[in-house]
Structure formats: C-alpha cells, structure tokens
Amino acid sequence: MSEHILIIDDEPEMLSVLGKLLTSKGYRVQQAESGEQAWKAIEETMFDLIISDMALPDISGLEILERVRATDSTLPFIIVTGVGTIESAVQAIQLGAFHYIIKPYKRRDIEILTQRALEFGKLHRKLDNIRPLDGEAPSLSMMTGSSKLLMDLLRRVEKVSDSEASVLIQGETGTGKSLLARKIHENSSRRDKPFLTIDCGALTETLLESELFGHVKGAFSGAICAKRGLLEEAQGGTIFLDEIGEISLPTQVKLLRAIQEKIIKAVGGNKDIPIAVRFISATSKDLRDEIIHGRFREELYYRLNVIPLQLPPLRERLDDLLPLIDHFLEKFCKLYKKRITQIRPEVLQAFHCHPWKGNIRELANILERGVLLAENESLTMDCVFLDNLRRETSREERDEGPKSLRETVEEAETRAIVLALKVCNNNRSRAAEMLKISRRALYDKIELYNITNKFLIVS
C-alpha cells in the first residue's frame, strides 16, 4: 500500500502542483488549505508524512508541527516557506521538523526530500514496534540442540517458511514459540519487511483491537488522535499473534474478516484499509477444546491452522539438555563476566530428573541464577538452590533405596558422560568441552566407569 501524505498550503496553485507531482509518484495525497482543516485531517487519519507551508491564514506551519509533536515524536514533517530566515529554520528544526525548504524549489529536490522523509518515518516506526522477546534481544537459543524431535520440526519449518500460508505454533509456556515465529519470518522472502508481535493475552479487548486495527480520534476514552494499527504497519511483512487463544469472540470475528478479505477497519472508523501480511499465531491452549466449549471460533481456527507446528516440551527432548546448558552458561558468563568451568555431577543429575514445567525459559532462569551466585568456577547445588530439584532427587533415592554419596556421584557422572557422548556423536573432544573437563579426565572417567563396554560407545 502506498504512503499517505498530507499537503498544507493556502495557495491553491502550489497545492495542486505539489499534489499532482506526488500523486504521479504513486503516493496517496490529501490536501488542506488551512491549518484548522489540516488539524482535523490529522486527528482523523494517520499520515506517513506532512508537508506544510510556514505561513497559513489561521494556524502557522510551526504551530501545527508543535501540536503534532505533542502526540507523535517520529512523524516526518517538512516545512515549506517563501520567506526563509535563519531564525525560522532553527525554530523548525528545534521543534522536530525533518527538513526546511524554501520556495521556489526544484521538482527533483522535493521528490528526493519526500522519499528520504518517508524512509525516516518507516525506520522509526519499525524501531518503535520492535518488542524484545522474553526480555532480551531476539535469539534462536531455544532452537539449540540435535534431538530428533527438534530436527523434524526444523525441517518442516524450512519447507513452509517462504509460503503465504498461515502458521499456528502450539506448545507449552517457555518452549520458544515466539522465537520459532521469528525464525520462520527470517527464513522467508519477507525477512526485510516488518515482523511485529502482539501479546493477545496482555491487553483488554478495546486496547487489543486498537493495537491490531488502529483507531480514529474519539473512538474510545483517551483516543485523542488517529493511530495506525499493527496489521497496517506490518504491510508486506509478518504479524505474530502470541497467545491467540486469549482473544474475545467479537475480536475473533474482526480478525477472521481481516484474514479472509485482507481488509480492516480502524476502531470507530468506516474506511476499508487493505492489508498484505502473513499471519503467524501461537498458543499454549488446546484450541480444539476451546472450540468445543464455545470460546474459540472454528472458522478462525482453520484459517490460522493451515500449517500446524508443535513445539515439544523440554522433558521430551532431554538429548538437547547439555547443548542448551552449554549455550546459556556461555551467554550468562559473558553477560556477568564470570567463569564457570565445571558443573557438579549432582547438578546434572538433578537437571536430568527435573520435570521442567517452565521448559527452556525455566532452564535459562536457573542457569542465570547459578552463574550469578557461583562463588568459584563450579556450578553447585548451592548456587542453583532449587528446592524442587532437591525434592525430585530425594524422591528418586527413596524409590530406589538408599545410596552412598560415592554411588550417587558415580551414577550422575556416568549419566552425564553418556549423554554428552550421545549428543556429540561419540566425539570425545567435543564431549569433554561440553562437560567443561579435560579430554584426559574424560578418558579416565570412561575407563573408571567402564562406559565403553556398558554403553557400546566407540572411539
């Protein structure tokens, strides 16, 4: 969809000439012959650029700029004047004008200036809409590992990423649904277009509709001017609807129309706005169960679920546990300028037995705490200090009968070594690096615990 430009000038001839020029370049142009007329348009419509004459019969261009800046800090605004002074130019820039141009100007100059102003606005809207995932910069850490479940999922992602089909990602909290959505976007031809996220469960119905579809002035209490919605902002890119199972039935109806017809209406507005976006949704709920109980529309489910992707919980991909531990330890050691060279066997044992109800997010939190509290280069139970980890280990000991400390340590070390060798395809150098021990120490332990014979591991 072409960018929307407002031109303000009390000279009909100048208004007409500039309007025709910009329209010929493919822009949507709206014109105003006075400040009041312009302000009314600004309150009702979201523009991508405003070009205003300095001298107007009622409100000056600088006054309009000042009003705009009170509610919008990034909307590009170009001031045009026939009588330019250094003082007025400085004032315009101080108020936040993108540029200041003096009449008569060359056709090519205004074309280039318009293009640059629009690029400036697009960039800053994109920056404003970037939402950190899980409180950190986007990372595909939750996709770390080589388990069969993960590899099968990533192969499917590779096949569907560049399609136009809607994707529904299902999985427990903390499994990395938002990161998988970003991976799909980055693997597609839309990678250079916006990727915008909205948490459907974090907003009230009114605010959610406003965020999705935009609103006009006065649509609800606090709507002091028009606002463009994320579905319009994401033109050509991807919109990620996190926790889609939380949206109300009335909003589901509007979203269904948007997906079917590729058209939306701003809240309180009556103009059709065409959209061209790809929909990726995610939920930790069973939407089929929600349909049965009348809380989710069946038509919307099928529209969203063209490509179903199921993220496995961490307890079902324990083969990825050590690579994930290695990843997060490296990350947090670098972040907090710490050095961890060893993980105590009882910690690995406890990790392996833990149910991981919070999945990879829980693992990351535990390791961050462990790195922060570690007093030396070893990660011990004292610095992860999870009561539930201790309870799980104690329960296992009760079920199997009492064990000596030496037997517990030997069993934990054996399990850790076997798991590391399995993940590293029996590459002992990589396994030693992953376990944070020397290659010689690994060979000694393999021999001590007779791991080669017991588990048929080859050199």
Brief overview:
The chain is built from 21 helices and 16 strands. The chain has helices at residues 12-24, 35-44, 61-71, 86-94, 107-129, 148-160, 177-186, 205-213, 230-233, 249-261, 287-292, 298-304, 321-336, 345-353, 359-373, 381-384, 387-400, 405-423, 428-435, 439-448, 451-455; strands at 4-8, 28-32, 49-53, 77-81, 99-102, 167-170, 195-199, 214-215, 227-228, 238-242, 263-264, 273-274, 278-283, 307-310, 342-343, 378-379.
The low-confidence parts are 130-139, 390-402, 453-459
* CATH class division of the largest domain: Alpha Beta
Largest sheet descriptor:
5 strands, parallel
- Give the spatial strand order of the biggest sheet: 2-1-3-4-5
Helical content stands at: 40-55%
Rg calculated over all Cα atoms: 29 Å
Estimate the global geometry from the Cα principal axes: elongated
Mean pLDDT: 83
Count of distinct strands = 16
In the residues, how many domains can be counted?
A: 3
**CATH fold topology of the largest domain:** Rossmann fold
**Cα distance spanning the termini:** 60 Å
CATH architecture descriptor name of the largest domain: 3-Layer(aba) Sandwich
Into which percentage range does the β-strand content fall?
Answer: 5-15%
Sheet/helix structural class: alpha/beta
Under CATH, the homologous superfamily of the largest domain reads P-loop containing nucleotide triphosphate hydrolases
Count of helical stretches = 21
